[in-house]
Structures are given as C-alpha cells and as structure tokens.
Amino acid sequence: MLNFDFKNPTKIIFGKDTIAKLAEEIPSTEKVLLLYGGGSILQNGIYDQVKAALENYDIVEFGGIPANPEYEVLLEALKIIKSEKITYLLAVGGGSVIDGTKFLSSAALYEGDEPWDILAKYIRTEKGMPFGTVLTMPATGSEMNSGAVVTKVATHEKLGMGGPGLFPQFSILDPQVIQSIPKRQLANGITDAFTHVMEQYMTYPTQAKLQDRFAESIMQTLVEVAPTIIENPAYYDAAANYMWCCTMALNGLIQKGVPTDWAIHGIGHELTAMYGIDHARTLAIIAPSHYRYNFESKKEKLAQFGERVWGITTGSTEEKATKAIERMESFFHSLDINTKLSEYTTEFAGTAEKISDRFIQRGWLGLGEHKAVKPDDVVKIVEMSY
Amino acid sequence: MLNFDFKNPTKIIFGKDTIAKLAEEIPSTEKVLLLYGGGSILQNGIYDQVKAALENYDIVEFGGIPANPEYEVLLEALKIIKSEKITYLLAVGGGSVIDGTKFLSSAALYEGDEPWDILAKYIRTEKGMPFGTVLTMPATGSEMNSGAVVTKVATHEKLGMGGPGLFPQFSILDPQVIQSIPKRQLANGITDAFTHVMEQYMTYPTQAKLQDRFAESIMQTLVEVAPTIIENPAYYDAAANYMWCCTMALNGLIQKGVPTDWAIHGIGHELTAMYGIDHARTLAIIAPSHYRYNFESKKEKLAQFGERVWGITTGSTEEKATKAIERMESFFHSLDINTKLSEYTTEFAGTAEKISDRFIQRGWLGLGEHKAVKPDDVVKIVEMSY
After folding, report:
1. CA proximity to A225, closest of B249, B1, B313
2. Which residues does B384 contact at the CB level (< 8 Å), separation at least 6?
3. B16 near B174, Cβ under 8 Å?
4. Among the four residues B72, B110, B216, B341, which has the most C-beta atoms within 10 Å?
C-alpha cells in the first residue's frame, strides 16, 4: 500500500426531503448567490424547495451556467459577487454548476488581476468563499471533493483546478431529485461514476485489499441498481444507492494508497472537445480499447475485476480478464451507451493522430499508472475504438 | 436507506515513516502536552520518533494513562494543562490514550465546575482544545471519530461522551508500529474491529447496498490478513490493511443510512467491569449467543454475511445463517480468543441476572436495532454464553 494523506471535511446531508434543512447550514446573516444551470430546477420543483427553505435570506440569483462550465459565463457571476457583496455561494445543480461554483469560490478571494491564472498557472486554492451545494444530478462526485474543471471558450481550453479550500461546506443529497432526470442523463451518470471507479482501480495489484474491495463494492452496487434507475428512477432505495455510489466514487477515499490511471479521461476529454460527445460516453468509447491495448500490464487486475464484480469464476487469468472487458462493454450497452466512435460520428478519420498531436504539444508524453501510454499508444487505442 | 448526516474532518496521514511529519501538522507556536499510556512507547522507539519530529517545540509530557482511561488520572493531566497554559494536545497511544485526550480536549475548555458533568450530563462538545494523535495500536477507531469512553474509578462508572469538537485534527497512522505489539493485543484488536463492523451491519436488510458491501469489505479484509498479522506483524502490507480496516470500521461511514445494534457492546462492557476481561474478548463471548438468541430477526442478514464474508453458497437461509455464526466463532478461536465466559472465570454464577439488574437500574429496557432485547432476554443471552 502506498503512503497517503486523506482529509475530506464536507458535511453530507443525505435523504428524503433534506433540501428543507438548508437554513440549518447557511448562517442567516450571509448574503447568498444562488447558482444554477439551464433552468431544469425551475420545472422540477427543486428551485421552489430551495427558495422555501431560505425564505428569509438575502439572495441574489445567477442561472445559465452551461454544461462544461464556461469561464466567460462565470466571469459574469464574479461581477455580481463583487458588486452585490456576496458572502456565500449556493450551487443548485449537477457537476457543472458545482464546478463553476468552485471556480467562483476561488476567484472571489483571488488577489491577482486575471482569474484564469488560477487554472492556467495551477494555483492551488487554500481558502475560498464558503459554499454549499444541493445536488440535482448524481455523477461527478464534485459535491464531496475539492476539484473542478472549467472551459475557456475563447481558446478551447478545458483545465482543472483544486485545493483544500474548495471542499463544499455541505452538500444536500436528496435521492428524489433523480425522478425528473431524462434516461439518457441517468445512463451517463451511471457510466461516469463506474468509470471514475475504474480509473482508480484498474491498474495492478498493490495489496491495498480494502481499497480494492471498496471500489468493487461501488461497481457491484451500480451494476445492481442500474436497471431500476433507468426504468424507474422514482424507486427510492435504488435512487439512494445510485446517489451514494456516485459520491463515494470520487470523494478521494478509494484512490488513497493505490496507483491511479486516468488515461481514459485524458483521451475522452478530447472526444468531447472535438465532437461534443457526452463526457460519460467518451469514457465508454475509450475504456474497452484502453484495457485491451494495455492487457498485459492490467490482466491480473482485470481478472480480479471479472471474478469479483462480474462473478467470472472459471478460466485462466487471461480468459477472465478478456471476459471482464466484454462484460463491462455489455453493461454500457445495457444502458444504451454505444462504445464505438463510429456510432457517434461518421467523420472520425484522423481523430487518433489529432489527439496524439495535442498531447505531444501539451507535453503529455506518458499517461496511466506507469506513465507508459505514449502518444503512439494513444493513436492505437483511439483507432481501436473507431 | 435511512436519512443521515455525515461529516468527518480528521486528516489521516497514513504510511511508512509518517511520524516524522508531525511538525507539519502542529503549529510551532503551540505549547504541546504529549500524552501517553503505560510507557511501551519508551521501549519501542515511537517516543523517540515523536520527540525527534517535534525537536524545537515547547512540550510538556504526561504518561501513565491506563487502559479504560480513568477520570481521576485525567484530572491530574487537566491540572497541568491549566498550570502550564497548554494550547495543543498530542495523544501518542491506542484507543485509551486517545479517548483520555478527547476528554481533556473537552474539559480544557469546559466552563462548569465539575468536568465529570460532561459525561454524567451528556454534554456534547461543540469545541475542544485542538489535538492530534499518533496511533500506536489499531483497534478502536478513536483516531478518526469524535467519541470517547471514560471510567470513574470511585463510582465504577464507565460513560461515553462526544460531539463535533472532538474529531482529532490529524491522526498519524504508521503501520510499522504494530511490530512491537504482543500477539494477544493484536488478536484483541482484530476482534474489536470485526465486532465494531458487526454491530453496524448485523441487523436486518434495509436496501443500503453500498454500506453493506463496505462493511463486508472490512470484515473480508480483516479475515484475510488476520493470520499474517498474528504470525508476522512486521509484514508491512498486512499491517497496513489491518490498520486501515480498524479506522474504517468505526469512523462513522458504514453506520450511515442503516440501523445499528450495539447490544453486544452494552452487555460486554459489564463483563469487563465485573471480571476485568479484555474488552474485545467480552465481545467474542457475547456475539455468538446474541446472534443465536435473536436468530429469527437477524437470519436474513446472517445468511447474507455467510454468503458474502464466509463464502457459504448452499443451504437454506437458516442453514447459511447458522453456519455463518459458527464460522465467526471459528474465526475468533483461530485468533486464540475464547468465546465462553467459563473459559475466563469459574465464578460466573449469577452473572446474567446481575447484568440484567444493572440494565434495569439504568433504565436500559430495550437494546438492539429494534430495542427489543429486554432485560429478560439479556439474562438468556448471557446464560447461553456461560
């Protein structure tokens, strides 16, 4: 087991009708900026629940944060934070709104001239403006971690940021919110959370037995509840398991003491940038090829994944590993998630080289747990996913 | 799944040679009281590591905190905190030293006349004097939770306390510390942690699928590493898994959203009070009888435990449940832990009634997840364990 530090101070308030508890978490003297996305909360009743819970608060609102939160839009919110002397941020949304709020938390207290530097110059946020979240779409885990990804439209850059100052003070997780989420987004959320776990798990055995089992626990549970989530998101217990799995998949716990991969995300982000394919679907496109291409270095762990998550008990290590990849693909297909790039676009010629070139330009010369996935390997992995 | 709140802000610093990082966690301006127990840290090198790490600090020392930390002893430490104007507490020890330090953290800022009231009047600690820990004996999980148990020798009372102010600011977990722990104590630690998980798991199915699997993961891992821990505690990877399992067993995570039992601890504490039997061993005495006596209400979960932790795949629910209890007993026996009261004392006549009478006096009229274990049931459970 590798050495690690772990600290996660976010308070989780989980369960039925918990949005009503908002006022217990935000001091009534705060001036609150309520941030949200495209407006679905105005239709599904969540906005009304939030406003009812914060009836006597001084609240300013900022809606319209897009998926892949855009720097240009967030700068408008930053102006409001300054002009209105906001002291507390409340994100009501999914990963994009929460990530955007994290940027604002950092930028609100940033003393430099150019807030983009927080991302461009990898400035760690030690202290941000306090913020909480009401999660409306389980998937990214942003509600209980300190990382965010922000996109600058002007330069087509999508960069990460983070730091101990960016944990939400609290996050309210009411599993009932998923009832109004379209099937397509639910399938994306399940795929995203599942792949988050895989990136922290599918490397090589390191004797981190508890971390492995926790990772497998999350995947087993996602696989078990997935059909119910898609068919009947109003079934509370399935929704609760799904929501808690998504949070536990990326709150830092399962990555502690183990090597992590993240090559699938690295490559997948480019497919979103190039073709606008949903983030989760890009992961489902790349993951099978990545594991097949790096089969030799991952086969022991793939076999363990096959045994424990998919119940494959017979065959050699290689046979179990091969079947495990097939079962993972079938799982994505069962969610109506396609796993080949050609199923999303007909104009994919040259994609592999383009991605590889971008990585070379950025100096990304070795991805994965061994930093052994070179630009040439990226070409082959992407080609295998056509 | 039940509604829950979860917040655990303790920073864990885990791994080889991490005691050297102490100075990164305690501001150098603090005046530190270093608290420890019977002095084993003076022999095994941990004291020297701590002193080397805090070379330039202003440190006062207080040793001699006994197992089951005693109020009377802790009051002596409290005097030193006040007379020496201590600002930071550092516990170097196992659960007893850490629990004693939690009491001191609370008492140091308590404004009442009688610190025992914190326990006797169940006063929740919202804010304590800051403290950190260096864990020398994995078992209780106190290094990452906000609870403590303190004993008043004068009145034979053993009471609990807690509150959000009592999370350690940090805990250093170096698995190498277990090398010098006697086998008997290692066996106790494994049994203690295993039973902690059982108390939060062995109730009835509630569709909290992820929590169940996390609990099972901890137990599977403890079972897997136990023989190595006993035979070769210097084997680092086993030690690391054991240590992390003990922390995860009682840091709050697996109890969230599920009913919990804790009847075994309630009854077991009395056996320690009456006969001085090691805490963990009292749990091993009571657990099998408790599960056999309450078989009907727990059999579904016992069968799940049998399937998932012990690999019992054939038979009816009742058969799997019965075998699961037997396998748990065998596991305790494999650690050289006896599971019958008569193996610890010949003078056990009347024990069951005495415990039941104490519970009646205290108003403990219903234990367990359904509050259905009445004093009469306690008599029968204890008699079954003779």
Report:
1. B1
2. B289, B292, B293
3. yes
4. B341
* Residue among A109, A164, A166, A174 at smallest CA distance from A135: A174
Q: How far is A179 from chain B (nearest CA, A)?
A: 17
* Fold matches, B11-176 and B182-384: no
Mutate to test the interface with B, among A6, A204, A313 (most CBs of B within 10 A): A6
CATH code of A11-176, in short, is 3.40.50.1970
In CATH terms, the fold of domain A183-384 is: Dehydroquinate synthase-like, alpha domain (1.20.1090)
Reported ipTM: 0.97
Instruction: Find, among A161, A367, A158, the residue nearest to A271 by Cα.
Output: A158
pLDDT tens-digit readout, A319-355: 999 999 999 999 999 999 999 999 999 999 999 999 9
Residue A279 in contact with residue A271, Cβ under 8 Å?
A: no
CB B165 within 8 A of CB B146: yes
Query: From the list B2, B214, B224, which residue is nearest A214 (CB)?
Result: B214
- The alpha carbon dihedral of A365, A371, A376, A382 has a sign of negative
Q: How far is CA B10 from CA A273, B164, B168, B247, in A?
A: 38, 11, 6, 11
Within 10 angstroms of residue B275's Cβ, the number of other Cβ atoms is: 15
What was the pLDDT predicted at B68?
85
In chain B, domain spans: 11-176, 182-384
| B182-384 CATH pick, 1.20.1090.10, 3.10.105.10, 3.30.43.10, 3.60.21.10 | 1.20.1090.10
| Size (chain A), residues | 386
Q: Do A18 and B8 touch (CB under 8 A)?
A: no
Whole-number Cα distances in Å, B66 to B44, B62, B74, B152, B279:
18, 12, 10, 12, 14
pLDDT digits (tens, 9 = 90+) for B131-168: 999 999 999 999 999 999 999 988 878 889 999 999 99
* Residues in A touching B216 (Cβ below 8 Å): 213, 217
CB contact under 8 A, A241 and B209: yes
Helix pair B317-334, B209-231: axis angle to 10 deg = 30
Closest C-alpha to B33, from B111, B85, B109: B85
pTM: 0.97
Can you read off the two tokens belonging to residue B272? 């320690």
Span A270-286, pLDDT tens digits: 998 899 899 999 999 99
Compute the nearest-CA separation of B194 from chain A (Å).
Answer: 14
Give every CB contact of residue A331 below 8 A, 6+ residues apart in sequence. A194, A223, A226
CA B290 to chain centroid, in Å, comes to 19
Give helix then strand counts, H and E, for chain B.
15, 8
Which residue out of A13, A210, A225, A255 would a mutagenesis test of the B interface target, given it has the greatest number of B Cβ atoms within 10 Å?
Answer: A210
